[in-house]
Design brief:
Elements: E1 2-7, H1 15-27, E2 32-35, H2 54-64, E3 69-72, E4 75-76, H3 82-96, E5 100-105, H4 110-116, H5 123-142, E6 149-152, E7 157-161, E8 175-178, H6 184-192, E9 195-199, H7 203-219, E10 231-240, H8 244-251, E11 266-268, H9 270-282, E12 287-291, H10 298-307
Parallel strand pairs: 1-2, 1-12, 2-3, 3-5, 4-5, 5-8, 8-9, 9-10, 10-11, 10-12
Antiparallel strand pairs: 6-7
Helix pairs in contact: 2-3, 3-5, 6-7
């Protein structure tokens, strides 16, 4: 089981906060540091000191770390055009020596779009745009050196794009598609993704999502197209402690009203988290993304590194 850390800087974190956290993630033996791609907090908290752009931040972290994977969960397809996004991610892949992953989704949080003047079409169009973005990004990265790439869709048109810069990873950085959608999300994951992620739901709900994705892989002939099996991953909201009181203190922000849908957190001891990891492994997950809320709570991260990772039988 590979264990990565997922963070939400839009709740209130500077670049320095994220750098300190990412360095500790690396020192603690985790698989990766992933961050949300949002420009606004989702609760009553204003998110001070303000948003930090996901890919600008990851580019900087690429030069300040040496081992951990770096990526987004997830980049909003509404925020950036697919051609420039492919360039951006490929450049960060070069800067990191080939450690970048692109989690990408349709976008959902209307308020931040309105706040920053970003168009927010209806959900059907957002998924149509996501599908075209996945086609464009994959196509640019798979184009051979010296070649060009063209694409004509309903929302994007590229003519003789030089497909530069080249990412270090071949044919490109791993693409993560995930979410709770029962129809289009599994299809997009089966066609374009390297990893499917089910975020922050119960083991039972996650198992159902995995089954839908497996069925989509069969329908779309993923194996016949020579694609490797999808990595199946889960997101887990975590608030653990050495005592029940410490765990409850860390869980307090989970009770604040938010625009996020209901989640299934692990609140309790390190052993409870190990048990949950085992349950996800039993349904096919080979990677988990632990969502930690407080960038200032470095002890939380150190506790997981010291008392959870060593119990995973060297599979981290």
């Amino acid at each position: 089981m590979r264990v990565a850390v997922f963070t939400e800087p839009h709740r209130g974190a500077s670049y320095d906060d994220q750098l300190r956290f990412a360095r500790l993630v690396e020192a603690g033996g985790f698989d990766g540091f992933f961050r949300a791609d949002h420009y606004q907090s989702m609760g009553a908290d204003p998110g001070l000191p303000g948003p930090t752009d996901a890919w600008l931040t990851l580019a900087a972290l690429a030069r300040e770390t040496s081992r951990i994977r770096l990526g987004t969960l997830v980049t909003s397809a509404t925020f950036r055009l697919p051609g420039p996004l492919a360039v951006m991610v490929a450049q960060v892949d070069q800067m990191s020596g080939g450690r970048v992953e692109l989690g990408i989704g349709a976008g959902w949080y209307e308020r931040e779009h309105t706040s920053y003047g970003i168009p927010f079409p209806a959900v059907g169009e957002r998924f149509d745009r996501l599908a075209e973005q996945l086609e464009v990004i994959s196509g640019l990265w798979r184009t051979q050196a010296g070649g060009t790439y063209s694409f004509t869709g309903d929302h994007y048109r590229l003519v003789d794009a030089p497909a530069l810069p080249r990412p270090v990873q071949v044919p490109g950085p791993p693409i993560i598609v995930g979410g709770r959608g029962p129809k289009r999300t599994p299809e997009l994951a089966a066609r374009y993704a390297d990893e499917f992620n089910m975020p922050f739901k119960s083991v039972e709900e996650t198992a159902g999502a995995y089954e839908r994705v497996r069925e989509a892989c069969d329908r779309t002939g993923r194996a016949d197209r020579g694609r490797a099996p999808l990595v199946l991953s889960a997101g887990i909201v975590v608030a653990i402690g050495r005592t029940d009181a410490e765990a409850r203190r860390r869980a307090a922000p989970l009770h604040v009203k938010s625009a996020l849908p209901p989640e299934d957190p692990v609140v309790g001891s390190p052993t409870q988290l190990v048990d949950r990891l085992g349950e996800f492994a039993a349904i096919g997950a080979t990677r988990v993304h632990l969502r930690l809320i407080d960038f200032a709570d470095l002890d939380h991260l150190e506790l997981i590194a010291a008392e959870v990772l060593p119990q995973l039988d060297g599979t981290r």
